């Protein structure tokens, strides 16, 4: 406690190279290098940055969007896999803690996609693979929900780090689960959302949710949101002027860093691409806890109890070891991409019962 981390964090606000995993990972590595040159020891990227968000779910009916789902699936990535290896290598090369959102192909079933956050340590080790628990609204047309096995806070050189994707930051119980594990640094990963109802201000919504978590938990939050490039508009909207206007709606993205008082540490970035830097001093989390510590003295655990099922949820359970099913995509993990989600689930999504 005498040496609480003090470091520079970076929130990256950028657009992916749409539906191109290889090019997006290359862009990611370049942005990591830029952030590291700016002094960052923690770099947070947007939700499903690799290789993009399924905006067609909001602008097309499900039948029209089905071919786009296949395009996204084919351009998604495997975890572990070569693109994860590249991200791990970049984190190791630049000595940074990395949080980034990806579209992950489910290894147990052709066609399954997860909205996944990867947490990677500065030694290049894959610390966590968190699959978004509940896809939001139209997102249910694309992603399968995750389970509680990945609701973990990871010890890192920048402090105890947790991460949630977009609407999960509205889920009070998910947030409390991380806070109750000692979270002091929270990564919030979002996408630009200009397709919400007309009276919805995404920038304000991100700021409110981020400030709430920081203030309630007395933690620092690093929030990274994607932007919508002209390439994305052209791909999704084509000649439909109504959709083009919708995707160009302002105040659809906000990235920044918030302190334990709920206020931005520095001016957030709205809509445009860039990197927001701020210094985080975890010692600032101590004094506010004297007033409200919702995982300590400012709670009544004799009245309230939260039960979290952190067992991995598998499609089938065998009493003995079955042979793993063949997969056209699965790749053996390399030493730089070891996954530790705190479970005994293998990459087939099959668990074993104890005899």
TrEMBL record:
<dbReference type="InterPro" id="IPR000132">
    <property type="entry name" value="Nitrilase/CN_hydratase_CS"/>
</dbReference>
<feature type="region of interest" description="Disordered">
    <location>
        <begin position="314"/>
        <end position="355"/>
    </location>
</feature>
<feature type="compositionally biased region" description="Low complexity">
    <location>
        <begin position="329"/>
        <end position="355"/>
    </location>
</feature>
<dbReference type="Pfam" id="PF00795">
    <property type="entry name" value="CN_hydrolase"/>
</dbReference>
<comment type="similarity">
    <text>Belongs to the carbon-nitrogen hydrolase superfamily. Nitrilase family.</text>
</comment>
<dbReference type="InterPro" id="IPR036526">
    <property type="entry name" value="C-N_Hydrolase_sf"/>
</dbReference>
<feature type="domain" description="CN hydrolase">
    <location>
        <begin position="7"/>
        <end position="282"/>
    </location>
</feature>
<protein>
    <submittedName>
        <fullName>Nitrilase</fullName>
    </submittedName>
</protein>
<dbReference type="InterPro" id="IPR003010">
    <property type="entry name" value="C-N_Hydrolase"/>
</dbReference>
<dbReference type="GO" id="GO:0000257">
    <property type="term" value="F:nitrilase activity"/>
</dbReference>
<feature type="active site" description="Proton acceptor">
    <location>
        <position position="47"/>
    </location>
</feature>
<dbReference type="InterPro" id="IPR044149">
    <property type="entry name" value="Nitrilases_CHs"/>
</dbReference>
């Amino acid at each position: 406690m005498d040496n609480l981390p003090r470091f520079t964090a970076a929130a990256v606000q950028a657009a992916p190279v749409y539906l191109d995993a290889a090019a997006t990972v290359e862009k990611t590595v370049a942005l990591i290098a830029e952030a590291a040159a700016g002094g960052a020891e923690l770099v947070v990227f947007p939700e499903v940055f690799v290789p993009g968000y399924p905006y067609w779910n909001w602008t097309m009916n499900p039948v029209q969007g089905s071919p786009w789902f296949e395009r996204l699936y084919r351009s998604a990535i495997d975890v572990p896999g070569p693109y994860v290896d590249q991200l791990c290598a970049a984190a190791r090369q630049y000595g940074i803690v990395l949080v980034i959102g990806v579209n992950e192909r489910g290894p147990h079933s052709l066609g399954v996609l997860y909205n996944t956050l990867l947490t990677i340590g500065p030694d290049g080790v894959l610390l966590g693979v968190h699959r978004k628990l509940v896809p939001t609204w139209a997102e249910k047309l694309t992603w399968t929900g995750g389970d509680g096995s990945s609701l973990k806070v990871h010890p890192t050189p920048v402090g105890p780090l947790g991460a949630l994707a977009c609407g999960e930051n509205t889920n009070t119980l998910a947030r409390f689960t991380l806070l109750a594990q000692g979270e002091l640094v929270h990564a919030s990963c979002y996408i630009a959302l200009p397709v919400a109802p007309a009276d919805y201000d995404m920038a304000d919504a991100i700021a409110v949710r981020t400030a709430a978590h920081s203030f309630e938990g007395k933690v620092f939050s690093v929030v990274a949101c994607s932007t919508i490039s002209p390439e994305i508009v052209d791909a999704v909207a084509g000649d439909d002027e109504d959709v083009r206007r919708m995707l160009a709606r302002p105040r659809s993205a906000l990235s920044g860093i918030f302190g334990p008082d709920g206020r931005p540490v520095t001016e957030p970035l709205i809509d445009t691409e860039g990197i927001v830097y701020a210094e985080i001093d975890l010692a600032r989390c101590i004094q506010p806890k004297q007033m409200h510590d919702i995982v300590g003295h400012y709670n009544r655990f004799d009245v309230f109890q939260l039960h979290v099922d952190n067992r991995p949820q598998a499609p089938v359970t065998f009493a003995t070891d079955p042979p793993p099913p063949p997969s056209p995509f699965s790749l053996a993990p390399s030493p730089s991409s070891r996954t530790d989600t705190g479970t005994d689930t293998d990459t087939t999504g099959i668990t074993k019962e104890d005899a």
